[in-house]
Amino acid sequence: MSAEGHDHAMDHEHEHHHKETFITKYIFSTDHKMISKQYLITGIIMGVIGVLMSLLFRMQLAWPEESFKIFNLLLGDKFAPGGVMANDIYLALVTIHGTIMVFFVLTAGLSGTFSNLLIPFQIGARDMASGFMNMVSYWLFFLSAVIMLSSLFVEAGPASSGWTIYPPLSALPQAIPGSGAGMTLWLISMAIFIASSLLGSLNYIVTVINLRTKGMSMTRLPLTIWTFFVTAIIGVVSFPVLLSAALLLIFDRSFGTSFFLSDIYIAGEVLHYQGGSPVLFEHLFWFLGHPEVYIVILPAMGIVSEVLATGSRKPIFGYRAMIMSVLAIAFLSTIVWGHHMFVSGMNPFLGSVFTFTTLLIAIPSAVKAFNWITTLWKGNLQLNPAMLFSIGMVSTFISGGLTGIILGDSTLDINVHDTYFVVAHFHLVMGISALYGMFAGVYHWFPRLYGRMMNKNLGYIHFWVTAICAYGVFFPMHFIGLAGLPRRYYTNTSFPLFDDLQNVNVLITTFALIGGVFQLVFLYNFFSSIFFGKKAVQNPWKSNTLEWTAPVEHIHGNWPGEIPEVHRWPYDYSNPNHDEDFVPQNVPMKPGEEVLHH
Question: Distance (Å, rounded) from C-alpha 196 to C-alpha 456?
Fold first, then answer.
C-alpha cells in the first residue's frame, strides 16, 4: 500500500512544483496543512471580534447609562448616541458574541484546525481523503463568517434574539429591530456554516477509516484522532437537524407558514398564524445545541490527553477507558437535550427522564477527569505553556462540570434557570475549557504548523493572567446567579433588589477587561513567532506520534519516500525496555519485547 501511495505522491509533488502559484499555495490550497492554518487564522480573527463584543457589553453591565467614547466609536450614533449604549444593540452584541464563539471560534478553531492538521499526520496518510472537498469546506466556512459579520452593518442591526434564536422573536420580522434583515443574514450564514461542517466531517470520517498506514489499528490511534473522529460523527448526526430548523424558520419569516408560530398579537393586532409551536423549535435547536457542546469540548479533550501524556512523560492512564468514555459521551449527548427546556412547559415526566440521562453523562466525563489526574500523578512534568493550559483545562472542566449537576436536575434548575448561574456554568465547562484546549494545541503543534517555536516566557504570562482572569470573571457569576440576577438584561438598575450586586458586576468586568487585553500577548507571540520564532527541531517535545517523524519543512504528501509503518501504541513513554523515555510509534519492537497493555 505504501509503495502505491509513494508513487502517487511523487507524481503529485512533481506536478505541483512547476504549477504552484501564490493562489494555489496559500488561497485555494488542497493541502491539509495549509487549510488548517487558514482555519486557525480565521478562527483567531473571529475570536478577537467575539471577545471585543463581550468586553463592550460587560462595560455596559458594570457601568449602565455611562457614556464611553469607545461605544460611540465602534457602534456609531444610532446604537450609542452620546456614547451611551442603546438597549437594542446590547441584545445584538450578546447574540453575535455567542454565535461567533460557539460556531466560528470553538467549532471551527478546534475541529477545523486540528482535525485538518493532525488526522493525516497522525494516522500516516499523505493528505485528506478529498483535498478538494476539504478546500470547499474551508471556503464555505469563510463565506458564512463574512455573511455573519456583514449582518453587523445592516440598518436595523444584527440578529438580537440570543444565539439560540428562539421564535417568535426570530420568526416575526416586525417583532424587534434585530428581527429584520440581520436575522435573515444570521440564518443564511448558519445554513452555509452547516454545509461546511458536514463536508469537513464526512472527509474526516472517511480519512480515519480508509487511509490509516500499515500497522495503525484503531487501538493504536492517538486519543486526538479518536476525539476528532467521534466529533465528526456527532456533527453528521446532529447538524442537519439545525439546518431543518433554520429552513423552517425562514419559511415562517418569509413565506407565511406557521411551524413555530401560534395565536400571536403584536401591538393589539391579531396575526393570522395558528397551529405552530415555539417549543418545537426548542426541541430541534437543542437536538443540535447539546451535541454541539461536545463537538466543541471533545477535540479539546483529545488535545489535552495528548499533551498531558507527552508533558508528564507517562503513558496515558486508561487508554481504552478513555475511548469508551468518548463513545459514551457521543451517544449520551444526543439524548439529553431536554434539560435546556425544563422551564418551557414540557411534560414534567419528560423532565425526570432528561434529568436521569443528564446525570448519566457525568460518568464518562468523570472517567476522563480521573484519568487525566492519574496520568499527571508522579509524572516527570514538563511545565511548558501547552502543559499548563492542559492542566488548566482539567481544572475548569471539573469546576464547571460540578455546577452542571445542579442544572441537570429539573427541580433545582427551575430556581437558577436563565440567571447568571447558567452563564457561569457553560462558560467554564465549554467556553474556557475548550479555549484552553485550543491554546494548548496551538502552543504544542506550532512547530509542526510553522517550523518555529513560540516564545515560552510570553506563553507563561499569557497562561497565568488568562487563568486568574477566567476564574475572576466566571466564579463570582455563580453567586449573583444564586441571588437571582437574570441573564441578558441590558441593565439591572430598574430592580432595587439587585443594587447590592452591582459591585460584583464591576469586579467581573474588571477581570474581563484585564484578561481581554492580555490576549494581545498571545496574538503578538503567535504572529511574531511565525516570522521570527526560533527554528524548530523535528521533534521538540520528544513525542511518539507520527506527525513528528515528518521533516520540519512542509512537503506535499507529508513524508519523502515511504510512509512510516506503525509497530506500537502512541503512549510508549518511560518504557523500561528502552534507554530513551519515549519510543515513537514507527520504532519496531525489540526481540522478546512485550506489547504494553493498555
Answer: 35
